[in-house]
Amino acid sequence: MANSKYEYIKSFEQHVKLLPNTFLVVRIDGRGFHHLSARYALEKPNDRRALDLMNAAARAVLTEIPDISLAYGMSDEFRSRTIGAL
Q1: In 3D, which of 6, 77, 3 has the Cα closest to residue 38?
Q2: pLDDT higher than threshold 70 for residue 64
Q3: How far is Cα 47 from Cα 41, in angstroms, rounded to an integer?
Q4: How far does the chain reach from its first CA to its final CA, in angstroms?
Q5: Bridging pattern class, strands 70-74 and 79-83
Q6: Contact 62, 84 (CB under 8 A)
Q7: What is the DSSP letter of 56?
Q8: Whole-structure pTM value
């Protein structure tokens, strides 16, 4: 992100230590999923390609960060859940 229009995102970073043995919930909100749906002619409400893509993304995050135990996605075009090892 260096020298990009998204450099301002760093101003939201906070270096705060969390209490041990506590849960943290993070909500990541996308933008313009309907544009992706239109571009690839995804069938609503649950196009198999979109579900597979979202589940693959959730699995990748669960694999990359093993401390995460649950990933959940929800949208007008997508509803699914992926659970990692608890």
Answers
A1: 77
A2: yes
A3: 9
A4: 33
A5: antiparallel
A6: yes
A7: H
A8: 0.55
